[in-house]
Design goal:
alpha+beta, about 40% helix, binds flavin mononucleotide, NADH Oxidase, about 10% strand, three-stranded antiparallel sheet
């Protein structure tokens, strides 16, 4: 599929995943897309923990209240931020992580899988607990989690504002 088609067809998925597995080959392709993202000062401050062991997925899903998209996920990618300043006092870890996540969302959609960008729901204690479970050093922040699988039923794509409402030529 053409990249513009993938971008316009991508949508968040919060439903049940089918039993179809996500191969390690595909997980590596997806994370490579994250690694290929730009980052401030090329600091590459985001790292990734790929989870495909069913017992670990179940433990993480439990921390997330057993929501169906996590409980039935066949893999998860946990995005971890190094918040260190990289340009004087400035750090770009949020932007770095967001760029990597968007690349991965596009790669996930291109490979025929679905996901949702989980951020708000892992802020604070849940992120800390996920970090402990995955042996992530305490000074790093678990910021985004992507549950991945094949969608059982796709919901309608949420409406986006029109081009003219959000963009203009100067
Ligand atoms: C920074 C950020 C944080 C998000 N956090 C969550 C979240 O915690 N839980 C969730 O269900 N969706 C989360 N989302 C997904 C958005 O709700 C979703 O992208 C938005 O509703 C638009 O839908 P779409 O992705 O289908 O275009 C987040 C998205 C972004 C960019």
């Amino acid at each position: 599929m053409d990249v513009f088609n993938v971008i316009s067809k991508r949508q968040s998925y919060r439903g049940t995943f089918t039993d179809a597995m996500v191969s390690r080959e595909d997980l590596i392709k997806i994370v490579q897309a994250g690694l290929d993202a730009p980052s401030g000062c090329n600091a590459q401050s985001t790292s990734f923990v790929i989870v495909d062991k069913p017992t670990l997925i179940a433990s993480i899903a439990k921390l997330l209240g057993d929501r169906v998209v996590c409980k039935t996920a066949k893999a998860m990618i946990v995005c971890v931020c190094d918040k260190k300043p990289v340009y004087g006092k400035l750090s770009f870890y949020i932007e770095d992580c967001a760029a990597a996540v968007e690349n991965m969302l596009i790669a996930i959609a291109a490979l025929g899988y679905s996901t949702v960008w989980l951020d708000g729901v892992i802020r604070g204690d849940v992120g800390v607990e996920i970090g402990k479970l995955l042996n992530i050093p305490a000074e790093l922040e678990v910021r985004v989690l992507l549950p991945i699988g094949v969608a059982q039923t796709q919901t309608a794509k949420p409406a986006k504002k029109s081009f003219d409402e959000r963009a203009r030529f100067a």
